[in-house]
Amino acid sequence: MRSRFRSDRRLTVRMTVTLFLLGLLYVGFVAALIVLLKSWVLVALVAAGMLGAQYWFSDRIALFAMRGRVVEREEYPQLHAVVDRLCAIADMPKPVVAVSEMDMPNAFATGRNPDNAVVCVTTGLLRRLEPAELEGVLAHELSHVAHKDVAVITVASFLGVLAGLIVRFALYSGLLGGRKDQNTAVIFAGVLGVSLAVYATSFVLIRALSRYRELAADRAAALLTGRPSALASALTKVSGDIARIPSKDLRTAQAFNAFYFTPADGREPGLSRFFATHPPLQQRLEQLGRISAELGEPMVPGEG
Predict the structure, then answer these.
(1) Where in the chain are the domains?
(2) Distance between CA atoms of 50 and 58, rounded to whole angstroms?
């Protein structure tokens, strides 16, 4: 079933190309590991097991990591009412609604498809936003589900996670040190080198897709609600409040930046913008300003 969220052909093309390139990289990565480790059964079982776990249980993993819990309508009636209204407008299945007991204002969506999705908001976000702003944020997250880019990011990130785990295991277990014969050292050096290359390549590809999908979600949410100024206001407010939260309190959340409404670092990317999970705040606000002008809705001063 197709939702009423505005489709984005460029997003679809980017997701397809990213998955294709990562698929080629994945095949090469597994082949290299089989050659180096001389055990295709072990490599295949580990790779298939991790991919299956990440695909089928990504929603539970994300909720557990971010201390989120599923909430019923009786506990958060207004939150459920907004989600119900947006799902009715968008003509899409209602996702599971969850809340994370965190002061950091943010939200994220996860799940392998629209019928098995979760939308989670933090208590910090609920305390800070006005109803129209909250609606804009939730529309943004629901568009990720409708466009299926949240599932693509989940699958795409698997290769980087696997390569990163191998690198960390090699470094922290001292596999390259100690008393080992030359052949063993060469094998593990090869595994480490291949893993580093795969991690770096997948990192860049996923970040590029992640930045575009945020712009696509902003655009779709603004067009669905007809109130881009409310979404712009929420972006400005949330980004400003996150910037005031101590870095030590954001470290756990930063691992999930690619899934968040706004990154949990509170800083605008400089030279590192090409490796950022989100486009700069100013770029997002400028896009919303253009949509607002197209819709004939004046932006609130300071947001355009």
Answers:
(1) 9-295
(2) 11
pLDDT in tens, 124-174: 999 999 999 999 999 999 999 999 998 888 777 766 666 666 656 655 555
Tell me the backbone φ, ψ of residue 205, rounded to 5 degrees: -65, -45
Q: Is the pLDDT of residue 177 over 70?
A: no
CB atoms within 10 A of CB 58: 23
Annotated binding site for Zn(2+): 140, 144, 214
**Count of CB atoms situated within 10 Å of the CB of 31:** 13
Token pair of 79 as six digits? 């939150």
Q: Catalytic annotation on 130?
A: no
Q: Which of 74, 101, 130, 141 is catalytic?
A: 141
Q: What percent of the chain has pLDDT over 90?
A: 41
Amino acid at 32: A
Q: Distance between CA atoms of 81 and 83, rounded to whole angstroms?
A: 5
